[in-house]
Write a structure and sequence with these properties.
The protein is an alpha+beta fold. The chain contains 6 helices and 4 strands; from the N terminus they run ααβαββααβα. The chain has a domain at about 1-10 and about 45-135: Alpha-Beta Plaits. Strands 2-3-1-4 form a 4-stranded antiparallel beta sheet. The longest helix has 17 residues, at about 55-70. It is flat and about 55 Å long.
């Protein structure tokens, strides 16, 4: 459950995210196809469409969650605000947490009286019209993707 909340904290463009997943699978299945390189870093890309009238409350809630994550040793997420195009409001690129970080976040949340577990998940959803989380690999250049796919 805590991983899901971390994912909400935690962007490459959605198109880039879709491109990186097959390349990562190829590199993991055949390291030679990746030119002997190690797999690129991984992250979680989240897209949020905030419920009407909840933008500031959502951002404040997420800032409080991110402070707890920071205290647990998790690197800061990178936030992008929508300016034109599709219907999402915010895109966030977050690190993938370790089990030890998840446990520390849970401990800090409880000690600070912050919602966690199912309660935290339900509270988060009161701010959402919709959201999605995707695991991605990168950043990579398009040439690295072609190479990982065995095309160079």
């Amino acid at each position: 459950m805590r991983r899901m909340l971390m994912a909400t904290l935690v962007a490459a463009a959605t198109f880039g995210a879709v491109l990186t997943l097959p390349a990562t699978a190829l590199a993991q299945a055949n390291p030679a196809a990746a030119g002997g390189r190690t797999a690129p870093p991984q992250a979680i890309v989240s897209l949020y469409r905030v419920a009407p009238g909840q933008h500031l409350a959502f951002l404040k809630w997420m800032a409080a969650q991110e402070e707890i994550s920071k205290a647990a040793g998790v690197a800061a997420s990178k936030w992008y605000a929508h300016t034109d195009g599709d219907q999402w409001d915010y895109m966030v690129v977050s690190p993938i947490t370790t089990p030890a970080q998840d446990a520390k976040i849970e401990e800090l949340s409880k000690s600070r009286g912050a919602p966690s577990g199912l309660r935290g998940s339900l509270e988060f959803r009161k701010y959402m019209a919709w959201h999605t989380d995707t695991y991605v690999a990168g950043p990579m250049t398009v040439a690295e993707l072609v190479s990982a796919a065995g095309g160079m």
